[in-house]
C-alpha cells in the first residue's frame, strides 16, 4: 500500500516553522510522507499566522481553494492550526464545512488522537484548550535543516502591546524547564547540529516564574559547554527585559553570536506609550549603548511599525531620527494593521493607507542606505561563516551567515555545506556580503 501523504503549509514566524517541524515529526511517526505539496495529499494542515494583514481572509480563501480537492477525494482531511486557528476557533468550522479539524498551537502533541477521532467520526472537531505540555522532554520532530535547529524555550506573552495578537493567540508566558532544553540541545549535538537558535516571543522573560530561578543568561551558560554546538542564538528580545547580565553573558560566551534582534517599533515617546511598550526612546537608546559596550561588534536588528493610530508627521520624524542614530544592521518594517481584539484596533485617528505607504518607503530608503554603509564597512574583514548550501544565484555560489547574521555569498564547493569557514569579505550590498573562502585560519572578525 502507498504511504499516506500529508501536506503541511506553514505561514509566519520561526516559531510556526518550528511547530511545523514538530507536526511533521508526529505525522512521520504515524506513517505519513510529509511535504508541502497538496496534490494527492490524504491530509492537509495549514499552520497559520495572524500577526499582520488580512490573515483571516487569506486562510479562508486558501481553504476555499481546497474545497475542490476534497470534492475529488472525499477522504481527504483538512486541518487548520497555528494562531488563526486559535483566534478564529469554531468560526472556521462553521464557515468552512469541508474543514475537518481546528487546533491551537498548544495542542500539537494531541495530534495523533485528534486525527484518529477525525478519521473515525468524520465530523468536525476542534481543540483550542490551554494545554501546557512543557514537562515533556524529547518529542518527535522532523527538522527542516541538518545542522541548524530551532528550539523553543518559552512561549506566550504577558506584555499586551496594544497592536499585537500574540497574547491572545499564544496565551500567557510559559517557560520550558532547563532540563528539557538541555536534553533537546544535547540530542541535537549528537546528531551533528552546529547552530541552535532559542525561540520565544519574549525570550528575555525566560524563567520569570520558574521554580529554579534560572533566567536566559543562566540558560545560555548551561548550554554553553555542550560539545559540538558551535553557535547559540536567541530571538526575540524585548528592550524592557534585556538585562545587563544578559549583555555580559553574550559578550563573554564566545558561542553566543553577536547578533541581537531588539524590536523598538517606533521612535516617538507618545507612540511608544500608546503602544504600551514600557520604555521610552531614551531608554531604548541607552540599552543600545550599553549593549554595544558589553558586546563588541554586535549587530542589532529591529522591528518598526509605521502608521500606528495617531502617528503624526512629528512622530514619524522621531522614528526616522532614531533609525539614523542607532544605525540598525537590519530592520523588519511593517505598516500598522489593525488586528481583531487588540486595543489599538479601536483607537481613533487610524492612519490612511496612502500615508502608511509613503512613510514605509521613506523609512525603507533611510534604512537601506544605513545597511549599505554598514555592510560596506565589513569589506576587508575575515568573517566566520556557517555555510548553508548553494545560493539561489547559481550552483557555484554558496551562501551562509556570519556570526552577526549577515548573509554572505561566495564561490565554493557544495561539500562545504554545514561547515564553518572563514570568508574574506570583498563587497557589501544592501542585503548581503560577497567574499572569498580562505583556507588558512584567520581570527574571525579581524581586519585585513
Ligand atoms: N501591525 C503591524 N505590525 C505588527 N507587528 C505585530 N503586530 C502588528 C500589527 N498589528 C509586527 C511587530 C512585531 C512583529 C513580529 O510584527 O513589529 O515585532
Ligand atoms: Fe506582541 Fe508586544 Fe508580546 Fe511582542 S512583546 S509578542 S509585540 S505583545
Quick overview of this protein structure:
By secondary structure, the protein is an alpha/beta fold.
Can you describe what's shown?
By secondary structure, this protein is of the alpha/beta class. The protein contains 13 helices and 19 strands. The chain has helices at 14-29, 55-72, 82-88, 90-95, 111-121, 166-169, 178-190, 216-223, 244-252, 269-275, 281-294, 313-326, 353-376; strands at 4-10, 32-35, 43-48, 77-81, 101-103, 125-127, 148-152, 154-155, 174-175, 195-199, 231-235, 259-261, 299-306, 330-335, 382-391, 394-402, 407-411, 420-428, 433-438. The strands form five sheets. It has a six-stranded parallel sheet with strand order 2-1-3-4-5-6, with helices on both faces. A hairpin with a 4-residue loop joins β16 (394-402) and β17. 5'-deoxyadenosine is lined by residues 51-52, 163-164, 263, 265, 303, 305, 334, 336-337, 339.
How large is the count of helical segments? 13
Listed once per kind, the bound small molecules are: 5'-deoxyadenosine, iron/sulfur cluster
Main β-sheet: number of strands, strand sense, barrel status?
A: 6 strands, parallel
Main structural class: alpha/beta
What is the overall pLDDT average? 91
Strand order of the largest sheet: 2-1-3-4-5-6
Q: What is the terminal separation in angstroms? A: 61 Å
- Which overall shape is indicated by the principal axes computed on the Cα atoms? globular
Strand segment count? 19
> For this entry, what is the oligomeric state of its chains?
single chain
Low-confidence runs (pLDDT<50, min 5 residues)?
Answer: 440-448
**Strand coverage percent:** 15-25%
Amino acid at each position: 500500500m502507498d504511504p499516506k501523504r500529508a501536506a503541511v503549509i506553514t505561514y509566519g514566524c520561526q516559531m510556526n516553522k518550528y511547530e511545523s517541524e514538530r507536526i511533521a515529526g508526529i505525522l512521520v511517526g504515524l506513517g505519513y510522507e510529509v511535504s508541502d505539496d497538496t496534490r494527492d495529499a490524504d491530509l492537509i494542515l495549514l499552520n497559520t499566522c495572524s500577526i499582520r494583514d488580512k490573515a483571516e481572509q487569506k486562510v479562508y480563501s486558501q481553504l476555499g481553494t481546497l474545497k475542490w480537492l476534497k470534492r475529488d477525494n472525499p477522504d481527504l482531511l483538512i486541518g487548520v492550526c497555528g494562531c488563526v486557528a486559535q483566534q478564529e476557533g469554531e468560526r472556521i468550522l462553521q464557515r468552512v464545512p469541508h474543514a475537518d479539524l481546528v487546533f491551537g498551537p498548544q495542542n500539537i502533541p494531541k495530534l495523533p488522537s485528534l486525527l484518529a477521532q477525525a478519521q473515525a467520526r468524520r465530523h468536525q472537531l476542534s481543540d483550542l484548550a490551554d494545554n501546557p505540555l512543557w514537562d515533556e522532554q524529547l518529542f518527535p520532530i522532523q527538522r527542516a535543516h541538518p545542522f541548524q535547529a530551532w528550539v523553543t524555550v518559552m512561549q506566550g506573552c504577558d506584555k499586551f502591546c496594544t497592536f499585537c495578537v500574540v497574547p491572545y493567540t499564544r496565551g500567557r508566558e510559559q517557560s520550558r524547564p532547563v532540563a528539557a532544553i538541555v536534553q533537546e540541545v544535547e540530542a541535537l549535538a549528537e546528531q551533528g547540529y552546529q547552530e541552535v537558535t532559542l525561540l520565544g516571543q519574549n525570550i528575555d522573560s525566560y524563567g520569570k516564574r520558574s521554580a529554579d530561578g534560572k533566567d536566559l543568561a543562566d540558560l545560555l551558560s548551561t548550554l554553553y559547554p555542550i560539545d559540538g554546538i558551535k553557535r547559540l542564538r536567541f530571538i526575540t528580545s524585548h528592550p524592557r527585559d534585556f538585562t545587563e547580565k544578559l549583555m555580559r553573558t553574550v559578550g563573554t560566551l564566545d558561542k553566543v553570536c553577536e547578533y541581537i534582534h531588539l524590536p523598538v517599533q517606533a521612535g516617538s515617546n507618545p507612540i511608544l506609550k500608546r503602544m504600551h511598550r514600557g520604555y521610552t526612546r531614551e531608554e531604548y537608546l541607552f540599552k543600545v549603548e550599553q549593549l554595544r559596550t558589553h558586546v563588541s561588534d554586535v549587530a542589532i536588528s529591529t522591528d518598526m511599525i509605521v502608521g500606528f493610530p495617531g502617528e503624526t508627521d512629528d512622530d514619524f520624524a522621531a522614528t526616522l531620527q532614531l533609525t539614523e542614530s542607532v544605525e540598525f544592521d537590519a530592520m523588519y518594517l511593517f505598516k500598522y494593521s489593525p488586528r481583531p481584539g487588540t486595543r489599538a484596533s479601536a483607537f481613533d485617528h487610524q492612519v490612511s493607507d496612502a500615508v502608511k505607504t509613503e512613510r514605509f518607503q521613506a523609512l525603507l530608503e533611510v534604512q537601506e542606505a544605513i545597511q549599505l554603509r554598514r555592510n560596506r564597512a565589513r569589506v576587508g574583514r575575515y568573517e566566520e561563516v556557517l555555510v548553508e548550501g548553494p545560493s539561489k544565484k547559481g550552483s557555484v555560489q554558496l551562501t551562509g551567515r556570519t556570526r552577526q547574521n549577515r548573509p554572505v555569498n561566495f564561490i565554493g564547493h557544495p561539500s562545504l555545506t554545514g561547515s564553518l569557514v572563514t570568508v574574506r569579505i570583498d563587497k557589501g550590498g544592501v542585503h548581503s556580503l560577497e567574499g572569498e573562502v580562505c583556507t588558512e585560519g584567520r581570527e574571525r572578525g579581524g581586519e585585513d
